[in-house]
Design goal:
366 residues; 2 domains
Length: 366
């Protein structure tokens, strides 16, 4: 496996693609980034225009002629396309640099003619992680960039086509809210699967603790750390969106953004609960392995306790002192010694059983 494609651990420091000392706004795309696809959805209360575009210049024909224009960019592999979109919408070079470098924390930045929003969408495709979603909100447009195609964005165009709710009558701020809400809600199915895995792992560890179970606990902890690092900055970003005076967000939309903020708080609470659960799993694993070790040691101790008196008897009768040791010349002495050993072993087993050391219950001394 090449070094570039080698999987990095969760929460590791991302690689910088620009050399130290490079000019601000240097755009260097990820060589593994997906191919760029651009799609336009322009709509108003009465009609909808939706099409895939090959030339970015086609967006000029719709800008300013529709109440809302949504330019959806999927994949960041074609840097010229991203650059031309930035020039067309007048995006700052530093904002484009954050779009291309997809390890940004959730944040909100205000510029003169638009607002730049970064959120992250959780997934568990190849371990728990998240993809960056960059959203530019202007007076009559929404420009979104995402690393790859997401299924959770699919309901948003469907609502626009069907005209459900306020999807067509509201402005671009409502569309931005819908995209943010879709990204936030994608945490919940991931956390549900996380909860199911924790419960099944807990049962497996209690019944039969193993090294594989311990490795899985560590993988869950790493995934949990990655999700927590995403959710905590998202809380700050949502607070800024619904509390700060942003010119492109109307007051009626702040109520919906506050609902997104409540969802983020729920996600953080769940993550804190799962952190406690995974810590508890480690304690359960250590307790289970300790109990198994104690059971093994108890069995070995009982076996040793049984064989110690038998070894004593064999040692005494094995000494070559005929005159000092009685019955050494007795023809039935060998069978008598074996019987004595068996009797001692049986007596010890009965004694251990009565004490409750062999699975029985100890007598009540109260």
């Amino acid at each position: 496996m090449s070094r570039r494609n080698r999987r990095r651990p969760h929460g590791s420091i991302p690689r910088r693609r620009a050399l130290p000392g490079s000019p601000p706004g240097t755009l260097i795309p990820d060589p593994d980034a997906a191919k760029t696809h651009v799609r336009i959805i322009a709509y108003g209360p009465e009609r909808v225009l939706e099409k895939e575009i090959e030339d970015v210049g086609e967006t000029r024909a719709v800008l300013g002629r529709w109440p809302v224009v949504w330019v959806q960019v999927t994949g960041l592999g074609d840097l010229p396309v991203v650059t031309r979109l930035g020039e067309l919408f007048g995006l700052h070079r530093l904002a484009l640099e954050d779009v291309v470098n997809v390890h940004q924390r959730p944040k909100v930045e205000q510029y003169k003619d638009y607002c730049y929003i970064v959120v992250r969408a959780a997934h568990d495709r190849d371990g728990h992680g998240s993809d960056q979603i960059s959203i530019f909100l202007g007076k009559d447009f929404v420009l979104s960039f995402q690393e790859r195609e997401h299924d959770f964005f699919r309901p948003v165009p469907e609502r626009i086509r069907e005209g459900k709710g306020r999807s067509r009558t509201a402005g671009p701020d409502h569309l931005a809210y819908a995209l943010i809400d879709a990204a936030v809600d994608c945490f919940f199915p991931v956390l549900e699967r996380f909860s199911e895995e924790v419960e099944s792992l807990e049962d497996a560890i209690i019944t039969s603790p193993s090294v594989e179970g311990l490795q899985r606990i560590h993988e869950l902890r790493r995934g949990l750390i990655a999700l927590r690092r995403t959710a905590w900055p998202l809380r700050e970003a949502m607070t800024t969106l619904y509390r700060e005076p942003i010119p492109w967000i109307r007051d009626e939309e702040r109520i919906y953004l506050r609902d997104c903020y409540d969802h983020v708080i729920q996600i953080i609470d769940l993550l804190e609960n799962y952190r406690d659960l995974t810590s508890g799993l480690m304690e359960v694993y250590l307790s289970s392995t300790g109990n198994r070790t104690n059971e093994i040691m108890k069995v070995l101790t009982i076996i040793s306790a049984i064989f110690i008196p038998m070894s004593l008897i064999a040692g005494i009768y094995g000494m070559n002192f005929p005159r000092q040791v009685p019955d050494l010349e007795w023809r039935g002495g060998f069978l008598f010694a074996l019987g004595l050993m068996a009797a001692v072993a049986a007596g010890l087993l009965i004694f251990f059983r009565l004490k409750g050391w062999l699975g029985g219950s100890a007598p009540d001394r109260s």
